[in-house]
Model the fold of this input.
Amino acid sequence: MRRARLARGKKGKPGSAKRRLVSTGSGSSSSKHHSMVLALYALNHPEVLRKCEGVLELGAGAGVTGLLVAKACGRPADVVLTDGEHHVLELTRRNIEANFKEDGRPSCEYLRWGENVAEFRDKVGTFDLIMATDVLYCPEALEPFFTTARQLMSSKPSAQLLVSHTNRSYVPHYKVRKAGSKCGFKCTDIPLQSIPGCAEMSRATAADPRHPLLQRMQVFRFTLKSSIRADPSS
Done:
């Protein structure tokens, strides 16, 4: 798997742009581990990437997950990275330019959950695969996040939303599941131990109290309930 290169910051220090994005876009110093976990899951399920028409990353930040998936899927132009902060999107754009040629590269777009969704959908359409990396650290974000994902997900039975989440006292895992169900999604927990490469990551971070990978992280797979697919306007 080819590693994505991250744009340099203003002082030219490798990774400085990434560090700013981690604190701005995710609110968590373990974002890189969440990004790798989601990317590992997608890369170890090539049938998902092979069949999907359109990949969307919500709250992309530095875009690590989207960049890795774009490299692997063979159709980088089908990948759209989004964020709700313009200054973050500028760094996302620089990371895309550092990793892809001008013809056939992922795009990045401004998207604020629950706000300019209809306009965004008219512009880029719907997606078979939507991903989000540890972006639900605010309780008020749950409903607009899942509403946005539902509006942008295709009606195919195979369409799915992959979410990695850190269990927090103010946004515990059960609230994420509950919010998804309220917005028409069926949730399946994906054990981290079942994702190739995660066990190695867990051992590598075990000594760092900031990154209790297996203890606090969970990956959720959300699919639309059949009644919602039958009536997308519901």
Notes: The two ends are 40 Å apart (CA to CA). Residues 1-6, 8-29 have pLDDT under 50 and may be disordered. Residues 86-99 form the longest helix (14 residues). Residues 16-230 form a domain with the Rossmann fold fold (CATH 3.40.50.150).
